[in-house]
Description:
The structure holds two protein chains of two kinds. Chain A is mainly beta. Chain A has helices spanning 3-20, 32-35, and strands spanning 41-46, 51-56, 61-66, 76-79, 85-89, 94-99, 104-110, 115-120, 126-131, 136-141, 147-151, 163-169, 173-178, 183-188, 195-199, 206-211, 217-222, 228-232, 240-243, 267-268, 271-275, 281-286, 291-297, 302-307, 313-318, 326-330, 336-340, 346-351, 357-362, 367-372, 378-383, 387-392.
Amino acid sequence: MNRRIFLKSTLASAALLSVQGCNSLASQPAKQEYWMPTGDLGIVIERADGKVALVNTSSREKLAEIEGLGDLSHASAVFSRNERFAYVFGRDGGLTKVDLITRSIDRRVVQSGNSIGGAISQDGKLVAVSNYTPGGVQVFDSETLAPVLDLPAVGKDGQASKTVGLVDAPGQRFVFSLFDSGEIWLVDFSAAEPKVTRYQDIGKQPYDALITPDGRYYIAGLFGEDGLALLDLWHPEKGVRRILPGYGRGQQRLPVYKMPHLEGWAIAGNKAFIPAVGRHEVLVVDTNTWTEIDRIKVHSQPVFVMSSPDGRQIWVNFAFPENKHLQVIDSDNHRHIQHLEPGEGVLHMEFTPRGEAVWVSVRNNNEVQVFDTQDFSKLATLSIDSPSGIFFTARAHRIGL
Amino acid sequence: MKRSLISQVRFTRGCPARRIKQGLGLALLLASSTACMAESSLDVKRQQELTYMLKHDCGSCHGMTLKGGLGPSLLPNTLSSKGHNIESLSLIIRYGKPGTAMPPWGPVLAEEDIRWIATQLLETN
Lengths: 401, 125
């Protein structure tokens, strides 16, 4: 059956079901077409054209392209907990809710400014967006995209700050950092009135952050100084502490042509793998003591340092002008196990839910390449325009993603 | 014969700093330097590479349409309103702004590339 006809008949049967719905609840299984599972779907941001590609990670194919999402440089996405909708955060301040089943835009709002990333709340009901200009965080209803809260991030210095490293945390909370004024803010939505806790003087220029997969530790990387800031969300009253202070040991930094990212799974077992800033190293940190255990020399300035879902491999890509390389490190002994050169502009990687394969955006080739994580063979090449971020629906059920 | 033809082509289309990288002589470099400053003699391919780079690699901090991101807007109006000209922009691009996230591009771009980008920033987009 041709895909379009398939889709139409599915919608028709969906409509039918909702008419008959009430009296036949649970007694009749839905028609197979209606199920349209989304668990092995994902989207790839097509950076230059305001499009996303809908992909299937089992068949390794591009299913559709969805257009009209605005400026998608640096775009990222989160998923509704039913894994039907992707919320895409674009550079032009656009927040687009994409329906993976009907393969179309469900709704879209353009909030003022220049957004950089977002998060979905623990209960799936709120979507938060962080902004560069004007700085701050805006929170929307995930169903309707109606505004719920506008939180200007005016820092200690009295200026509006760019906000970065926005994540969701257990307890219906959001956490983010203020780039310009060096603060971490914790916003608690569990009560009727949202409550904001501000941590000041956490370090100079936090540029991105991650939350550990268990939702306990929020870690912001600092650009303005060597070190990271750590907030224990089990004990927020203890405040933020500095970890790995002065990891550069006073050496001159090398130029950084692209900001490193911390988002993703950089935690493997009881170790965190973190890109150093201005040094061609990945720092290995013991997550019990939060002290450095090792530093691994890598090819160039690391951008994404991501661990496979089982924590066994660490994949690293690099900043311009070395962005055609990919290195794979063994998380156990910290040795390099593979060096790949997929092509110019390796921007992002995403593992399949259980990690048998990894998808890699190769921007200048207009390709997404899929690699086997056991033998590193190339399993597939998909042609996708100017691909950047890759996001699979399994993220819907992970804290902080 | 063949060799001199190639230098001839490079003489009109190439640029001093790029040519250093291509390993040609200093005499040639000096001879061509004035011509190079006056009008851009980057070849079309290099101009395309730089346009791509401006959009994607500068764009990763300044926004793909250069409207601003982590770094400020680089649109012509914004830059002129701050009193920027080719010289001031070239300096910033070459040396970066120490203490900020703006990196020095001198290590990876030739002076001619930098001036071409500075000119583009003031003119287009």
